[in-house]
């Protein structure tokens, strides 16, 4: 199972774009990359998922370079309500691997 | 559609007791996973059930067990509670099929059960 590494914490001002990078050097061919958001005392919430290049939805974009050894979650124009922990998860849709969440990145949005 | 429902929301137990937590997945989802979350250890995988069978298990002692019913609802049991079992216990469901574990579209988590052992 690909191990992921993320910054422990980040600060950003409201209205700025935030980029959180996740390193997954031993990602396997069949692995997808998924990002989750978690608020205190709640379960993680699915944000976005991708395999390669760029994926965009209504809340975020996910950039994956050609070698797929890292990925970047981009949150446009963050607000105070985006203050949360963000987890990067790498896994194989066809495998029986134990699902492991990393330590996550605690994003603090400052007014 | 209804999300993942976990009951109870909060629970206080005494050391040595046992506890049962319940999780109702999204309708149609056959996979249910359980996680323990603590400030020190983060989100740790407990086990995953698919169609009433445990498919995968994390590195937890045998005091932690679970089961899944024919309607996909799942229960988790912790026996002989220890202070260190105090945590947020999260359940997640996914629409994976028999040969899959990691779902396209991600997991849907419940709000969790906050267990405090005193």
Describe the protein's architecture and organization.
The complex is a heterodimer of chains A (111) and B (118). Chain A is globular. Chain A is mainly β. Chain A has strands spanning 9-13, 18-23, 31-38, 45-50, 53-56, 61-64, 70-75, 84-92, 105-110. Helices cover 0% and strands 49% of the residues of chain A. Chain A has no helices and 9 strands. In chain A, strand 3 and strand 4 form a beta hairpin. Chain B is mainly beta and 118 residues long. In chain B, the strands form 2 sheets. In chain B, strands 2, 4, 5, 6, 9, 10 and 11 form a 7-stranded mixed β-sheet that branches. A 4-stranded antiparallel β-sheet of chain B has the order 1-3-8-7, with no helix packed on it. The termini of chain B are far apart. The chains are: A mainly beta (111), B mainly beta (118).
Which whole number gives the mean pLDDT of chain B? 92
The largest pleated sheet of chain B is described as: 7 strands, mixed
Low-confidence stretches of chain B: none
**Strand and helix order of chain B:** EEEEEEEEEEE
Shape descriptor of chain B: globular
**Largest interface, Cβ cutoff 8 Å:** A-B, 25 and 32 residues
Strand content of chain A: over 45%
| Overall pLDDT confidence of chain A | 90
Radius of gyration of chain B: 14 Å
Sketch the major β-sheet of chain A.
5 strands, mixed
Helix percent band of chain A: under 10%
Low-confidence stretches of chain A: none
Query: How many angstroms separate the termini of chain B?
Result: 37 Å
Strand content of chain B: over 45%
Spatial shape of chain A: globular
Specify Rg of chain A, calculated over alpha carbons.
Answer: 13 Å
Q: Please provide the count of β strands of chain A.
A: 9
Global structural class of chain A: mainly beta
The tally of beta strands of chain B, per DSSP, is 11
Which series of helices and strands of chain A comes N to C?
A: EEEEEEEEE
